[in-house]
Write a structure and sequence with these properties.
Strand order of the largest sheet: 2-3-1-4
Distance between the termini: 29 Å
Strand content: 25-35%
Order of helices and strands: EHEEHEH
Number of domains: 1
CATH class: Alpha Beta
Largest sheet: 4 strands, antiparallel
CATH architecture: 2-Layer Sandwich
Structural class: alpha+beta
Amino acid sequence: MGTINLGIQIVPKSTTMDSYKLVDEAIAVIAASGVKYEVNPFETVMEGPEEQLMAVAKKAQQAVIDAGGEEILVYYRMQIRPGQDVRMEEKTGPHR
């Protein structure tokens, strides 16, 4: 399979930690992974092979738990085109 887009929103729940700091832990994992990504107000969108992006997503989820998240809600959105790549630039480039 080729390149897809995967949007991930991790909503941490914690009685002792700041939610934004927990989300920052997930974004740090995504940034360190080397995949192309964009942070948006409601989610982070990654671009690459599905298997790689899902592995990064799982590491990001675990980073939030390891940082003290007591519970997380995770929402995924994927755009997949069999036989064709999906690129963020084709969707957002004309608006920049």
